[in-house]
Amino acid sequence: xxxxxxxxxxxxxxxxxxxxxxxxxxxxxxxxxxxxxxxxxxxxxxxxxxxxxxxxxxxxxxxxxxxxxxxxxxxxxxxxxxxxxxxxxxxxxxxxxxxxxxxxxxxxxxxxxxxxxxxxxxxxxxxxxxxxxxxxxxxxxx
Length: 142
Hints:
With about 140 residues, the chain is of the alpha+beta class. About 45% of the residues lie in helices and about 20% in strands. It has 5 helices and 8 strands. The protein has helices spanning about 20-25, 45-55, 65-75, 90-95, 115-140, and strands at about 5, 15, 30-35, 40-45, 75-80, 85-90, 105, 110-115. The chain has a 6-stranded antiparallel sheet with strand order 1-7-8-4-3-5. The chain has a two-stranded antiparallel sheet with strand order 2-6. The model has no long low-confidence stretch (mean pLDDT about 95).
């Protein structure tokens, strides 16, 4: 499970140092892809396979399903962290998420999200006030 917020920087080669607490779960390989709100999602390879199976099982006769399948798969990059826990974020994904140097890495239960630091700050500030209200609406009883 991925939890917490971290603030690594991209190096000049577009590599991100994964937080130490995430490295074991991602050491066997990962998939980086574009995600909602113009962030990136990093999935352990096995979890991404499960996500892809769910996405594949949806009826591709529906336009919005095809759109989602295309956007998720076309941006995906299969990566393996190096011995220092660094992972290269391909240029097309860095451009999609607006990543240049300062990043925020957020644990999001079953995935890691990578945000441009300014974009995360704005998103977090906007969503904070609604957070308490979402609990009863989205997950009653928690």
